[in-house]
Amino acid sequence: MAQSKVWLITELAPPEYSPDREQCWLRATGFGGVKLTFAGIRGQMINILSLQHQQLPVAVMSDRFTALMAEHQIPHTAMLGMLPVPASGLQLMIDNGQAAAWLAKQNT
Prior knowledge:
This protein is an alpha+beta fold. It is built from four helices and seven strands. The two termini are 14 Å apart.
């Protein structure tokens, strides 16, 4: 299995589409201000677009190599899923200053 990277998404912009609507991009801000872009193609947008309906913050797992080599441009093939952690629990970790330690533990 590919090594994974967990991102703690705190903000999402509205999705953007190509003129023919065959591609979409969802820009996000992660914990610590990291900028991410999730990209999808027709038929594979569902995972990416499902992010916009999640209560924030949300923990997203992606393929570590692809995400880091593409400077945080995450294609649909690299998004592995969302972690089943309630937004309220993630927000509590952020508020209590524990989010960085939690992310470090997830990414080891």
